[in-house]
Each structure stands twice: as structure tokens, then as C-alpha cells.
Amino acid sequence: MNVPRLRNIIAGFFIMLSLALGVQASPVFHHVYWLWFTLFVGANLFQSGITNWCLMDKILGSCGVPKG
Fold first, then answer.
1. Alpha-carbon torsion 7, 9, 10, 14, what sign?
2. What integer pLDDT is reported at residue 53 of this predicted model?
3. How far apart are CA 39 and CA 41, in angstroms?
4. Is 61 helix (H, G, I), strand (E, B) or coil?
């Protein structure tokens, strides 16, 4: 597993988890403020697409995950 693939898996998981916790129709609903975390992850994905820099890439690289 490499950095871009693992980054996409983590981002997708964070989005699904925050939606499950923030949408009132969900059986695991906690609070609508979890939707702010969804916005945060989406904004970071948008930013990394424009700037070609992602903090998660740096974190995964420092953990020894192969770059590509």
C-alpha cells in the first residue's frame, strides 16, 4: 500500500464516519457539529488538489509508508 492510496482510504473513511455521526437520520447520530469535520476533510482534499501538498502525505511518509 502506498501513500496516495492510503490517503484516499483514510479521507473516505473520515468522511463516511463524520457523516454517520452528523446526519440525524443515521442510527449512530451524535451531533450535527460532526458535519464540520466533513467540511474540513473536503477542504483539505480540495487544497491538496490545487497546491499538490497534503499533511497526511507527510504523516504517512514519516511513518514509513512507501511514496508511490
1. positive
2. 96
3. 6
4. helix
